[in-house]
Amino acid sequence: MLSAVARRGLVFHVIQLVVLGVFLSVEGHKTGEFVALKAQNGSALCATSAPDDSRIVRSTLDCYRSCSVAGCMCASGANYRKNEKLCEMYSEQPTNYQIVPDCTFYQV
User: Fold this and answer.
1) Who has greater pLDDT, 82 or 26?
2) 34: DSSP letter
3) Which of 12, 61, 62, 94 could form a disulfide bond with 49, CB atoms 3.0-4.6 angstroms apart?
4) Residue 13: its pLDDT value, please?
5) CB proximity list for 35: less than 8 A, separation 6 or greater
6) Which pLDDT tens digit goes with each residue over 16-46?
């Protein structure tokens, strides 16, 4: 049998692994149905059409959360602009995309 201290340590490590798994799925650009749009050469694409709404966020995960909360305001997806910490949301599918440094469009 494990001691109480060993059980707490084991539970702590399991929680760390779960949190790490969630983090890696976000940083791997696929979280649920929030998937990075990429060009044929593998480069991330950025929507260059005007967004319907934008918010300052801290990370891709925060952009995903903002998009989830925004509902129909983010029905098609969102750009995450890493350097600007900006989440640009689209209610309709953008019509123009380009390769833009530090910007990725995530489809919903």
Assistant:
1) 82
2) E
3) 94
4) 37
5) 29, 106, 107
6) 333 333 333 334 444 456 899 999 999 999 9
Q: Are strands 34-36 and 53-56 parallel, antiparallel or unpaired?
A: unpaired
Q: Name, in order, each residue with C-beta under 8 angstroms of 50's C-beta and a sequence gap of 6 or more.
A: none
What does the domain layout of the chain look like in residue ranges?
32-107
**Measured distance CA(97)–CA(82) in Å, rounded:** 17
Q: Residue 87 has which token pair?
A: 């989440």
Q: Which tokens sit at 85? A: 């910490």
- Judge contact between 73 and 52, C-beta under 8 A: yes
Question: For 32-107, CATH number?
Answer: 3.50.4.10
Beta pairing partners, 3:
none
pLDDT in tens, 88-104: 999 999 999 999 999 99
User: Element (H or E) spanning 9, and its range?
Assistant: helix 4-27
